[in-house]
Write a structure and sequence with these properties.
The chain is of the alpha+beta class. Helices cover about 35% and strands about 10% of the residues. The chain has 18 helices and twelve strands. Strands 2, 6, 7 and 12 form a four-stranded antiparallel beta sheet that branches. It has a two-stranded antiparallel sheet with strand order 1-3. Strand 4 and strand 5 form a beta hairpin. The protein is globular, with a radius of gyration of 23 Å.
Length: about 575
């Protein structure tokens, strides 16, 4: 196996290779081993702060999901977005490309490993245990996020067959280090080991701004989501309960103030405030996800009026039982939407532009993602309870979610608490959504499931899970989590393409594991397999081009009307 170069750049904390590097010699010639300077609790604490990734998986995951569709060839997009939408190997290179995700998250892993080694060299004393816990969680989180992109969904029956990812456990100085991908089962075990070791160590007292670190609520929320994907239902309940505490309703987003937001910016600023009790962990990243998904800069593939009306915010549901409209739905967020027929957004994902040259409008594009929230964590627990057939507890959590996310009355509709009976009655009368709908009458929030590595019983269990997945969809839209839910439950769906055959994503679809960066494969690491009939050409559609890298120009200011 040839050495794999350029998979992660050398860092100022020392030349840290995630897989064998051949480009570190010049750094080693110029710099001493800077890890020797990390010789105090304060320096370790600062180093761990750099172990959080500054890359995002949102764009690639959201475009791969069923939250977007094709507005037509007369609109432009970026090559990477076109390739992702068409489930092709992504060849473009920019902030949100597979290469940048790979480099960015492995860079964070390398920094976490540097911190862990420094902690060991300092004696691993009691005054460093909180930092140790944070570093372990940072490493586990980066590997977990990469697994959601580059790996299949965990399947208890196939995890020993599916490919995992290299999981570095210590800083590497040698250019001869050899890595293999291993299996998905091995990868999940290593993530789990880090999480389990870290959780008892987390101490909020060491943080000046806890919401930008793995504070206790965020740590347990991460553990809950990981175990949800790991199909460890009891663990989901245990950790979600620790994150939510004795009064989980107090961990939900208080929606009423958003209804009076003075436009998109005001809404977004409220949404990402660290003072919001619902926001457990906030992560900034270099990303153009907002520019593509919620700013209308590229309209070819988007969350448009069709998806809004029949699949997401305005879809027929227990709180909007009559028609695809905002006039009767009780969903708070459905009354705070902006855009037009081609793209509709809830302003939870907006671009934060950092100028390096204000005169020429050049700088760095950022997003801020409330990556773990109380609203999503309560749904993790509700799903786990439904999987455990503890239906009354699942219903209780669904009602807690409803208390924060649904209005009591709106447009003549009044909210009633969920019960097993009324959920069954509503879901039973819905038809399953067509994979290739020919009209709005063939669309539905109810999807045919082929669960990956677990079973779902027809009747109450399926009905509760169908509704919980819909709740997750409207709660996490524009955050990329829908793609993993589709993969986990084996939900077949289409990507419509104007004047072409629709693209179908099937249960267990190998394209659910996004292909590794080409230079990583060329250097010898095994790529993700593809079915023979999926070997498509690598040319995207009619896409606009963009210069890769973190530096972008300021976007045009688009005034968005509120959708009534």
């Amino acid at each position: 196996m040839r050495s794999i170069k350029h998979i992660i750049p050398c860092l100022m904390v020392g030349c840290v290779a995630v897989v064998a590097l051949t480009s570190c010699d010049e750094y080693l010639d110029k710099l001493p081993d800077d890890r020797a300077t990390v010789n105090s609790v304060e320096k370790v604490t600062k180093l761990v702060t750099s172990a959080y990734p500054t890359s995002s998986t949102i764009l690639i995951s959201e475009i791969s999901s069923d939250n977007v569709t094709d507005n037509g060839k007369k609109y432009g997009t970026l090559p990477q977005v076109d390739e992702a939408y068409r489930f092709k190997t992504i060849t473009s290179d920019n902030n949100d490309s597979p290469r940048e995700i790979w480099n960015g998250f492995y860079r964070a892993v390398a920094t976490a490993n540097e911190a862990l080694e420094a902690i060991n060299e300092l004696g691993n004393g009691s005054d460093l245990q909180a930092q140790r816990g944070e570093a372990l969680l940072c490493r586990a989180f980066s590997m977990f996020q990469m697994s959601t992109v580059f790996c299949m969904a965990y399947d208890s029956l196939k995890a020993n067959e599916y490919l995992g990812l290299p999981y570095p456990l210590q800083p590497e100085q040698s250019v001869d280090t050899h890595y293999e991908r291993g299996t998905l089962a091995q990868l999940y075990k290593l993530i789990n080991d880090d999480i389990e070791q870290a959780l008892p160590l987390i101490d909020d007292a060491i943080y000046s701004i806890p919401k930008y670190h793995f504070n206790q609520k965020a740590a347990y929320a991460f553990a809950a989501r990981f175990n949800l994907y790991y199909q460890k239902w009891d663990k989901v309940v245990e950790y979600a309960t620790k994150a939510l505490g004795n009064t989980p309703a107090e961990c939900l987003r208080i929606r009423e103030p958003y209804s009076t937001a003075a436009g998109v910016d005001d809404y977004f600023n409220m949404y990402v405030q660290s003072s919001q009790a619902c926001n457990f962990l906030m992560l900034p990243a270099y990303s153009i996800a907002a520019r593509v998904l919620t700013m209308g800069a590229y309209l070819r593939y988007a969350h448009n009026m069709t998806v809004l009306s029949y699949d997401t915010y305005w879809a027929i549901s227990p709180w909007n039982p009559a028609a695809a409209t905002s006039q009767r739905t009780l969903l708070w967020s459905a009354h705070s939407l902006y855009g037009n027929n081609n793209f509709v957004l809830e302003p939870k994902l907006e671009e934060v532009f950092e100028y390096t040259d204000k005169v020429n409008g050049i700088g760095y594009v950022h997003i801020v993602d409330p990556i773990f929230t109380g609203d999503e964590t309560i749904l993790c627990r509700a799903e786990a309870y439904a999987q455990l057939k503890q239906y009354d507890k699942a219903i209780a959590d669904m009602n807690i979610w409803a208390s924060g996310n649904l209005e009591q009355t709106y447009g003549g509709t009044t909210r009633t608490d969920f019960t097993v009976d009324n959920v069954n009655a509503f879901m039973d009368q819905l038809k399953y959504a067509a994979v290739h709908p020919l009209s709005e009458f063939e669309r539905s929030i109810k999807k045919k499931m082929t669960p990956q590595g677990f079973t779902v019983e027809a009747g109450t269990q399926e009905n509760l899970l169908q509704l919980i997945l819909y709740m997750r969809r409207v709660t996490t839209i524009f955050q990329g989590l829908r793609f993993m839910d589709l993969k986990r439950y084996g939900i077949e769906y289409e990507h419509y393409v104007e004047n072409e055959d629709a693209l179908t994503f099937k249960p267990g679809d190998l394209r659910g594991a996004i292909q590794l960066p080409s230079d990583v494969i060329a250097a010898g690491l095994q790529g993700n397999p593809r079915d023979t009939d999926e070997q498509a050409t690598q040319q995207g559609g009619e896409a606009q081009t963009q210069t890769p890298g973190n530096t972008e120009t300021e976007p045009e200011n688009i005034i968005l009307p509120k959708i009534q």
